[in-house]
Structures are given as C-alpha cells and as structure tokens.
Amino acid sequence: MKLQRMNRRALTLGALAVSGALALTACGSDDTSDKSGGSSASSSSTANASSIKCDDAKGQLLADGSSAQKNAIDAWVAQFSQACGVQINYKASGSGAGVTSFNQGQLAFAGSDSALKPEEVTASKKVCSGGQGIDLPMVGGPIALGYNLPGVDNLVLDAKTIAEIFNNQIKTWNAPEIKKLNPDAKLPSTKIQAFHRSDESGTTDNFTKYLKAAAPSVWGKYEGGKAWEAPGGQSAPQSAGVAQQVKQTAGAIGYFELSYAKDMSSVQIDTGASAPVAANVENATKAIADAKVIGTGQDLALQLNYNTKADGAYPMVLVTYEIACDKGNKADTLPATKAFLRYIASEDGQKILADASYAPIPDAIIAKVRTTIEGLS
C-alpha cells in the first residue's frame, strides 16, 4: 500500500510539472499559431535554452518597433526568459514608432526594418550618453505579396505590374498585364483590393524601395520611406492587420513579412531570371547575401540589391535591425539588453529564424554583429 501511494504521488507531481511547463510556454508568446510558425520554433529549440549566457541579466526590458519581426521576437523571448528570468515586453507598434520611442529614451532597444536616418542618429545622441544609436541586422526575410483569389494558384507578377496595382492603375484581376504573365490561369474580373500599411513601417519602406529600383517608370516619382504615398487602396495597421484584411477580403492583395502569409497564397515574382521566384526563406537568403555593409563605425546598416536578376534570388526582402546605443546604455538595462542581443545573434538564436519563416543573417554579417554586441557599454 505504501508503494502504491508513493507511485500515485510521483505521477501527480509529474503531471503538475508538465502543466507548469506548458503554462510558461503559453505566457512567453502571443498567439501566432495561425500565421507564424513561431510556436513550433519555440518548441523545437527548447533544448537550446540551457546554452544561453545570461551573465548579470535581470529585471524587465521594454522594447518596441517592427511588427514584421514580432514572430521571431516571440520565439526568442520564450527561450531567453525561460533561461534568464528576464521579462521582455515587445510592443510591435511599427518601425517608426519604435525609433521615436527609442530616441525619447523610453526603450532598452528598438526594432526597425529600415536603418536609422542621419537625423535619427543625431537625435539618439541625446539618449545614448557619449554614444549614438546603431543598427544591428538581426532578422532577414522576404516580403510576401499575399493574395485572396480562389481558384488561382501560382500567380506570377513582375515589378511593373505590382507597382501599377499598388499605384491604383490596374484595377481588376483579369487585366491584360496580369493575363500576359499568367496565360494558363482563369483570372476573374474581380476588383483588386490592394492593402497597404496605415502606420509608418519599415516594411513599407523596403517594399517601395524595391518598386523604385525595379519599376522606376511607375514608382520613381515617389520619395519612398516608411509612410505610404500612393493614391487609392486600403490600409490597415501593422503586418498582422494587413494580413488579416487580405485573408477576409475577396480580390485582396497586400504586402507583409512571410510569417504572416502562412494560410494564404503568395505571388511569385518574374525578375527576368530563368524562372519566377517564390517568396521563401532560401530564396530570400540568396538575395540578402548580396547585401553590402554601408554603416560606419559600429553601425552595420546594409544596402540591399532589390533589382537582382540572379536565379532563385527573391528580390523583395527586408532586414530588421535591432537598434541600441553603442555607448551610454542605461546601467539598469544594459546587462539584460546585451545578453538578449547576444543570444539572438548566436548560432542557436539564428537557427530559430528558419523555423519561423525568417531568413538567418548571412555568416559574414552576423559575425560582425556579434563582435559589436560584445562592445556595447
């Protein structure tokens, strides 16, 4: 009888341990199961948590910015918080909001899909005592063009056609320009509903940089940047908002980071290469590997080649930067900020990205990021 009681007690404690672990996982991330694959990334990398170097990390970190990287941040936070006990609150309000809040001294770090502008670097010097804000490329990936057109699979568009759609020039899905690129598709006369971001967004910045580079005859008149400029179309906030509108609107098309396109069809791009190129991690990595570091000093801002015609290179890519002070970080948040950035730039941290539909930063670039992080003060 005594042995039976001991066995029952052991089973009860084991069940409690499992349920407690599940509760921790649930608290560590948003519900992204319908769009990100972030949950699977987190579970597949649980064993890596024990290898995270926490040092003196403690307390809480407040961060904000790019919504495109939110699913990656969620997966990273789940691992880091479990290992180090640090609470990280990443708000994902958009790149513009993140940079603004960082330069107001409200954040430990910010996320932005665009490198800091000269005036933003100048503003950061008021917050980074004796230093400035720097760009650390950490997340790569394709900007997918998700669409809602039942019965039409493997839709192919080129840069000029994409530009004319989002410039409110091509208005129906059976337009001659689209038919020419998709001769075997049964294209309906459905009205095109083009969705763009309502908030200032690095995703918008990168999307329009691609259009300016690859379709200058249509998009060359726009200055570009984080705010949407073209007429017409409809808008929604953050990547999640645009993706949700595309999912629920017949005839819709919108741009967002690949992890938000899990449950919908995505456009293949005719770049002039031997075959149209699909939006996936492998094809985005081929394009990002062609990037050049153009930042000076400790800044690692990149110049992407949006007009590549290399076979298998998906040209519509973005790189999200984590923005931190090179010097003058707040003493109470520096240890945790440095430990978190070190982890996400590590081999284990970058491995999570592919599971969550992001592209890891190429080795030559991420090696420079790791060196820079160790020098943060």
TrEMBL record:
Residues 30-50 are annotated as: Disordered. Residues 1-23 form the signal peptide. It comes from the Bacteria. It holds the Pfam family PBP_like_2. PROSITE patterns: PROKAR_LIPOPROTEIN. Residues 57-347 form the PBP domain. The keyword Nuclease does not apply. Keywords: Phosphate transport, Signal, Transport. Belongs to the PstS family. PANTHER family: PHOSPHATE-BINDING PROTEIN PSTS (PTHR42996). This is Phosphate-binding protein.
